[in-house]
Amino acid sequence: MRPDLRTAIATVCLSGTLDDKLAAAAEAGFDGVELFENDLLASRRGPAEIRRRCADLGLNIDLYQPFRDFEAVPPDVLARNLRRAGHKFDVMAELGADTVLVCSSVSPDAIDDDDLAAEQLHLLATRAAERGLRIAYEALAWGRYVNGYEHAWRIVRRAAHPALGVCLDSFHILSKGDDPRAIRAIPGEKIFFLQLADAPTLPMDVLQWSRHHRLFPGQGDFDLTTFTRNVLDAGYRGPLSLEVFNDVFRQADPYRAAVDAMRSLVALKDSLGLLDVPAAPVSTGFAFAEVVGESNLAALGFTRAGVHRSKPVELWTQGEARVLVNAEGEPGAIGALGVAVPDPAAAAHRAKVLLAPPLSREAGPGEAPLTAIAAPDGTQIFLCADEDWLGDFVPTGESASPAGITGIDHVALTQPFDNFDEATLFYRSVLGLEPGATTEFAAPFGLVRGRGVSGGVRLTLDAALVRRGGWAPAVKEPQHIAFTCTDALACAEVLRQSGARLVDIPGNYYDDLAARTDLSAERVAALREHSVLYDRDDRGEYLHFYTELAGARVFFEVVQRIGGYGGFGVVNAPIRMAAHHEARRGR
After folding, report:
1. pTM of this structure
2. Nearest alpha carbon to residue 247 among 212, 199, 210, 216
3. Which residue ranges are tagged as binding site for Mg(2+)?
4. Which residue ranges does the chain devote to CATH 3.10.180.10?
5. Could you tell me which residues are annotated as the binding site for a divalent metal cation?
6. Fewer CB within 10 Å, N or C, the chain?
7. How confident is the model at residue 471 (pLDDT cuts 50, 70, 90)?
8. Is the pLDDT of residue 468 over 70?
9. Residues at the annotated binding site?
10. CATH architecture entry for 405-585
11. Distance between alpha carbon 198 and the CA centroid of its chain, in Å?
12. Between 399 and 386, whose confidence is greater?
């Protein structure tokens, strides 16, 4: 497999005018574009001018698309279709595009006759070849008679024309559960084009799934590494091109979306072994989490252990949990995360290749040269080796009575909705964290989507699907740090006795818990007494409780994992959110 495969993106992936889309694609580093016909029709530039604009930007027009409902039709319809084709060929000549995408027909005029389809596609390919053009035939997953790639290939093979080949689209193939291994039987020179899209697993009509919910590779549930490897092993050497229909991407900043798209292809190439880039770092845990402004950590049993030599930052510790409190920045926010990695330089190089924005940091004399990158939501991610950075803090000599907190379990970061899938890809590709299943739950003031990413460290990414007006008294983009403990009930008791402001959980929750689980009455009573929430899966149990807000939007959670429990207690999130709301209102 060659590492120099070109990259392309369909203009339909991005928002804005055609000029906006082309500029964004070029700035993100794409080699070419698939020109979607609607973008051409809405542009004030003529085809020849669009060709010159693409050349100025260093972009090739790799595909013109789509040409719909052509094949297997009665003679009068065929005549009209050939007239349409002639016009498209004229446009392509001006554009400098040599390949047109022909989708399998969904027309009521179509006839279920492979021989007729092959005959008419042969005729179309003959006319295209006379103009130096090619036809890439694609099986739509909802095609009337041709809806599988193997069927499309049989028709192309039967047509037997050198200017006719297939276009393979990962969504149309994987959404139907078709086996991509048979792709290897298609000669590479007959695979004229490859379109890539990921998607979440959704039980819905495939057409609606396709039109609204496609994602860039690495953001969904499809195995695009295996799929693409089959295509490359067949001998395909054209561009890796993205065709993603997504309601969010088509409204988002096209420059940001194009960078996210390019990151997805870089990560895909890396997964295929086509890039010389360091492997994703294997994190050994959180070095620290940073909050901005007053956090009341003393009430949780933390010790103010150090003061930074040159910055207004304090180090608070308890067990292996380290929290930095920064006096500068947006109060009440998680400003940074320190991720411990074996080789920060290699991790930083990988981050650069995967288009993670680097952050400049001024280090004083003798201070650790930490490398930082920006996550999609603006959180600073520091790549730390060992504990060298601890030398930047002057010890205070202070001590406190610990409450039983032992470390950091996970950090929860609420994402702007438009960045939810971008964040998943960022953490997966840059830090090697593996995404869990996406969940949705009804919160007191709207629907919330969440997803955990894990691997050495755990993060949860949450997003509110819709916000309407000023009625919802919700905290904007809440964040929290979850600490570990060995005994949640004992830890909650100590913290309440020390005056920590913990969230009270209503009795109805525990009445229901007793009814739907086999927990003993004594266990439920203890959970109720300390306002500790409970969840379990097939591997273990999860006990957790929360503090009230410490600042504008940050709070803390204390968790106890028993056995191999792998979740985050999402089932209890609406209960916690309602309790937080009541606490803010003063009940």
Report:
1. 0.92
2. 212
3. 410, 480, 557
4. 285-395, 405-585
5. 138, 169, 195, 243
6. C
7. very low
8. no
9. 138, 169, 195, 243, 410, 480, 557
10. Roll (3.10)
11. 10
12. 399
